[in-house]
Amino acid sequence: MIEKFEWYDVFVKRDYKPDLENDVVVIFKVTPSEGFKIEDVVGAVASESSVGTWTTLSILPDRIWKLMGKAYEIIKLEGNSLIAKIAYPIELFEEGNMPAFLASIAGNIFGMRRVKSLRIEDVYFPYSFMKFFKGPLKGIDGVRNIYKIYGRPILGTVPKPKVGYTPEELEKISYDILSGGMDYIKDDENLASPPFCRFEERAKGIMRAIDKAEKESGERKVWLANITADVKEMERRLKLIADYGNPFIMIDVVIIGWSSLNYIRDLAEEYNLGIHAHRAFHAAFTRNRDHGMSMFALSKLLRLMGVDQLHIGTPEVGKLEAKTEEVIEYAKVLRESIYRSNEVNRMEQPWYHIKPVLPTSSGGLHPGTLPEVIKSLGVDLVIQVGGGVLGHPDGPRDGAAAVRQAVEAITKGIPLKDYATQHKELRRALEKWGILRIS
Ligand code: CAP
Ligand code: MG
Fold this sequence. Notes:
The chain is built from 18 helices and 15 strands. The protein has helices at about 40-50, 65, 100-105, 125-130, 140-145, 165-180, 200-215, 230-245, 255, 260-270, 285, 295-305, 325-335, 370-375, 385-390, 395-410, 415-420, 425-435; strands at about 25-30, 70-75, 80-90, 115-125, 155, 185, 220-225, 250, 275-280, 290-295, 310, 340, 350, 360, 380-385.
């Protein structure tokens, strides 16, 4: 028998100094349920996410004391919430196994009765943990080298309606968009291979459009081909894309899951393909600021896993809920070689061998929003415009041209309304949608 102790209390060690070479640190925002002491709640989170359960045990090998999560810092926030920093020794985790890692630090704890709500704000990875992950194959330089586009954002369109076109219709739209000036054409996140638009037929049509647009424009054109499906089917579609010589695939990374992503990441390397990551479903757990996981932490996990482009949303001019200052931090943590912040819920993160990811800004954009997008997020960016191209009064070709002109104007430092006097397509877009500013 071991001596009696308060089980959850032993996971709170305020005198512990995290070992930044050998500890993973998770920063949680914790809101305790009524009637529970802070230590009992934070200790429970550290226990259940590492080695413990709800009670003391009759068998407890000495090793366990080394493996346990240690809550070493607790900071009270306004209201009833607090920030808890918990350090986990890397020996707790299998090397390179992201799903199992998440089953620890993002598993049962979200449902514990004693937490009213719980949110992973940040996850710090030491090199000793990171070295088992590959990160992006291409990274920002690799993606730019595909297109040979430097110094401006990469521009593309997702045709709308998002699902419903036939392959023939998409071939025409793709050609119009690409010859209008877009760099890529993208499938929507929920377009897979429905009966009226089978993947193979779509591939034929879009690749024909790409060939034609490339020959005429002399520019590289790309299809972000959504292969989201069962893993075996994704593999088949990925190989088809590689056979066509198209350099990119797209996947709905959150929906397909971590082990599928890992598998596809390795295959993409074998076939030398970039990965465009759509984040559909993320808002189910990132949007609530008290519960789930932050988009910031998700961005870090996905950079580690190795996507080349990731959707991060827009500044406050788009259609989806977002806070400009938060979106800027997502872009920073994807791009920088050492991420730094003074915020209480963030840690400094060096990225070592892990290449940067190109952030993708998307959702309700049109030419009149782009000055704010580029002002907030810079030019190392993918700008993705759907309705803002397909909704152009004179059709998709002019819609694409208007986006390209807007970006030309911004990179030359010319106000959109001045550039529009000489560029009809841009003028027509601004007449319909105006120029939006973050007030
Ligand atoms: C954009 C989009 C994107 C969302 C994803 C859509 O179309 O294709 O999937 O923006 O958002 O279907 O809504 P529009 P995020 O340009 O027509 O809005 O990148 O923020 O995850
Ligand atoms: Mg979409």
